[in-house]
Amino acid sequence: MVCRLLILLSAAWIASPQSGPDFSKEVAPLLQRCVACHNAAMPSSGLRLDHKAGALAGGYSGKVILPGNGAGSRLIKLVGGTEKIVMPPAGPRLKPEEIALLRSWIDAGATWPEGFTFAVSDRTKPNPKPKHWAFIAPRSVTPPNAGEAASIRNPIDRFILARLKREGIAPSPDADRHTLIRRLSLDLTGLPPVPAEMESFLKDSRPEAYSELVDRLLDSPHFGERWARPWLDLARYADSDGYETDQLRPYAWRWRQWVIDSLNRNLPYDQFTIQQIAGDLLPGATLDQKLGTGFHRNTLSNREGGADIEEYRVEQVVDRVATVGTTWLGLTVGCARCHDHKYDPISQKEFFQLYAIFNSADEINIPAPADGEWGEYLREWPAYLKKRQELVGRLESELAPEVVEWERRVLDSEKNPGKDYRWDRQLELLGLTWEGHKGGGQLEGVYILKTPPEHRTGEQRRRLFDYFLRHGSLVNPQKFEAFKVKEAIKQLGVLDKTAPALTMAPVLFENPLPKPNFLHLRGDFRSRGMEVATGIPAVLPPASGKVDRLLFARWLVSRENPLTARVAVNRMWQELFGAGLVLTSEDFGKQGAPPTHPELLDWLAVQFQDSGWNTKKIIKLIVTSAAYRQSSQVRPDLREKDPQNQLLARQSRLRLPAEIIRDQGLAVSGLLSPKIGGPSVHPPQPAAVAMEAFETPWTASRGPDRYRRGIYTWLQRTAPFAQFLTFDAPDPTRACARRERSNTPLQALTLLNDPVFVEMAQAFAERLLRERPDLSPEQRIDYAYRISLGRPARPAEVTRLRQYFDAQRAIFLKERDSASTFFGWSVANLGKEEIAAWAGVASVILNLDEFVTRE
Fold first, then answer.
1. Is there a contact between 319 and 336 (Cβ–Cβ < 8 Å)?
2. 584 in helix, strand or coil?
3. Which of these, 181, 363, 405, 840, could form a disulfide with 441 (CB 3.0-4.6 Å)?
4. Between these two residues, 688 and 551, which has the higher pLDDT value?
């Protein structure tokens, strides 16, 4: 009887409603903590805990709360830390007893009073706080009336003088004309002025002489070379893939050439932007417009055996989003990949909405013939095709069934990975590289395979068949053996070496088979969160219409976007003053520096837009201001008030960028090759540097290519040109908006002992002796100063260098073998000892601080 009574009582207890913990007093506070720490929602997973419907039915991988099953509820797994997402995502974790209380509430049926919601704000709702300054569109302002008309050359000076007046600081006087022409030449072309141009400017006292000099320099073909370099820094340009094997990109230079040409012809910045983001999507896109998308081909690529194709494709898309954020928006967008941005109003969901814009863009190389190539190609190509047909035409016919089967099996491997490792490897190799086709797009082979045969171009069919011959024996080894395919491959390789060359260009194209877009939990592409559509962060003005790459590009340069114009003019200012009006030119967000002259920044941004995005016009506006023309002489009264020169009471004295230091040495020594554009070159450098790269020899270029400008130097990601690294060239694996400037002993040793700088000193000495053999030593020293520093030598400098020359000559007269070693050829019937002594003088001048500095 007792046992029966207990059973009846237990059944009655189970059948009766279980109240469980009190919701409002015990459960709600715990849920409130989870909700409040994530601003009412978890967009990264599709979870909602701020209302009943979301909590009981939400979640991309099942219900968050399963009433009656505490152990199986995802909420318990989240607060228990057994999943990738942990709740609360911020603040202290729930205690074991608190988790047990939630579990008992769920076991009891998860009673949730009707109408109960948490009073918390949602990130998607308007932010009641004032917007950060950078997210408010720049406004047209009237330049202030700063008085002192004699110190004002254009409206820029009104803003600068008004600030200086408030601080009780006077501006600096103009620099002397020697300094001005050298400053302008280095800033606008990256090269020193030639003596004839300098003499002409110094003699021209007309008021308009300075403006005319600016125009000549802006029209120089070297302008594009100088101003392309900071853009290449932003684009993380290099001539190799990166990662361990760091394979070569022999056609990367084609986009670099597009940048130089676009800057020289002053392509409006809005078109410059659109063509780099989505030039391939423009109606009737021309080759030149498509070339712009090479900007996005500067991502790292991993073509190593065993690399996961999708993993590294995703990394490329992520990098493109982050780079666009740095380059055009001046925001650290990449920080929102794994979680909501810690400081700026950019959620992880919004990052992946931007990601979705680029996710369907695939890589391809297209013909982009250099000068003279196209005609030769058209003449020789038919003969090559005829020989090819004679060699493999029969194979194409006989192996047609095997080709069809091979394509089917490779595509099946993509749909069913792990089914057969041999076919998985076929797909992997197809996606990683194109044998015999240097620098192909990383996924170009997979795209061609997915293109129906009837829609493939002749080039695509040939390349795919060549790949099949080299890798497709798996489908029918016996038939490959019977038709002696290996022998045909060898013959085809020999024939391909005779094929007419045609320069290719790395570009993007929109894949007609769009990829689904999901948020990646914790940034891991293998952990899919909620599905997302393309979009723009809510803190910025919306775009009208469905956001694809082309609409996004046009939105970037729209009037409504508050960032692009500001970011662009700030970088121009940075190049001309050494620091931007916003010092953190890579970050206009809350963690970045506020503008030192906000009204001037806005005025310049509006001027840029009103000018039709005319880059050269804004640069001219800046360099013709009195602020730019000031002396860079450090003033005692500014050392405490403005040690960083943020108030701009003087010009900045700047150590030159790495490439320009070398360019200037080549120019003054007479070695510089003036050739514009073309493939990258390999200047001499120690063999030990090249050994750092993976099986990539460094063979020094010969002839004029040995002395090309620094922008054309081959840039190997795993072993960058050592001389440039010494002078703070940036890491080519990530976007760089501003270079660091250091002052190290290694730099002094490089200028003194590097074989390239020794060769420059020798050539400089020869130039001094060859051009002016009639000069006295003192006059020759003065002439050397005019060539190298753009000014006459001071008497004390002449005296010291004459003493140094005499001492060196005495040494070489005693050690004649040393003279032959230091300078091994004769000039103007002079003795080797005297020539070697002049090479020593030239080396001293090339080592002067003033030589590597822009005053």
1. no
2. coil
3. 363
4. 551
C-alpha 221/C-alpha 229 separation (Å) is 14
CA distance 296 to 235: 8
| Encoded amino acid at 822, one letter | F
Cα separation, 854 vs 657, whole angstroms: 10
**What is d(CA 669, CA 662) in angstroms, rounded to the nearest whole number?**
11
How many CB atoms within 10 Å of residue 744? 11
**Chain centre to alpha carbon of residue 301:** 14
Residue pair 298/364 in contact by the 8 Å Cβ criterion: no
Residue 817 has pLDDT above 60, yes or no: yes
Cα–Cα–Cα angle for 179, 180, 184, nearest 5°?
120
In the 3-class helix/strand/coil scheme, how is 668-718 assigned residue by residue?
Answer: HHCCCCCCCCCCCECCCCCHHHHCCCCCCCCCCCCHHHHHCCHHHECCCCC
Q: Cβ distance 549 to 510 under 8 Å?
A: yes
**The token pair that represents 646 in the structure block:** 């943020």
The 10s digit of each residue's pLDDT in 463-501 is 888 888 888 888 899 999 999 989 999 999 899 888 888
470 burial via Cβ count (<10 Å: 0-12, 13-18, 19+): middle
Site of tokens 């949602």: 122
Helices (H), 190-243: 195-203, 209-218, 222-234
Mean pLDDT of 806-831: 81
How far apart CA 488 and CA 806 sit, in angstroms, is: 71
Single out the residue of 459, 425, 422 nearest to residue 444, CA to CA.
459
Helix (H) or strand (E) holding 854: strand 853-854
d(C-alpha 82, C-alpha 680), whole Å: 52
Percent of the chain residues topping a pLDDT of 90: 60
Pairwise CA distance, residues 557 & 267, whole Å: 14
CB 698 within 8 A of CB 687: yes
Name the residue type at position 168.
G
Distance CA 466, CA 2 (A): 87
Question: Could you give the CA distance from residue 74 to residue 60 in angstroms, rounded to a whole number?
Answer: 11
Q: Are strands 528-531 and 518-520 parallel, antiparallel or unpaired?
A: antiparallel
Peptide bond into 369 cis (omega under 30): no
Q: What is the mean pLDDT of residues 69-90?
A: 72
Q: Look at the block and give the residue holding tokens 């009639």.
A: 774
Q: Are 834 and 162 in contact (CB under 8 A)?
A: no
Give the other-Cβ count within 10 Å of 525's Cβ.
Answer: 16
Query: Which tops the pLDDT comparison, 847 or 30?
Result: 847
Those residues whose C-beta lies under 8 Å from the C-beta of residue 149, and which sit 6 or more positions away, are none
Q: Read off the DSSP letter of residue 730.
A: P
Q: Give Cα separations from 155 to 91, 158, 211, 482, 562 (angstroms).
A: 51, 5, 16, 81, 22
Measured distance between the N- and C-terminal CA atoms of the chain, rounded to whole angstroms: 106
Mean pLDDT value across the chain: 87
Judge whether residue 101 has pLDDT over 80.
yes
Return the closest-CA partner of residue 445 out of 418, 458, 469, 427.
Answer: 427
- The conformational region for residue 259 under phi > 0 = left, psi -120 to 50 = alpha, else beta, is alpha
Each residue's pLDDT tens digit, 526-561: 999 999 999 999 999 999 888 999 999 999 999 999
The pLDDT assigned to 124 comes to: 44
Which of 168-172, 474-478, 497-501, 772-776: highest mean pLDDT?
A: 168-172
Q: Which residue has the tokens 């991502």?
A: 299
Number of Cβ within a 10 Å radius of residue 628: 24
- CB 630 within 8 Å of CB 164: no
Backbone angles phi, psi at 495, to 5 degrees: -65, -40
Q: Is 565 helix (H, G, I), strand (E, B) or coil?
A: helix
Instruction: Output the 3-class SS for 637-663.
Output: CHHHHCCCCCCCCCCCCEECCHHHHHH
What is the spatial distance between Cα 211 and Cα 273, in angstroms, rounded to a whole number?
28
Strand partners, 504: 367
Helix (H) or strand (E) segment spanning residue 278: helix 269-278
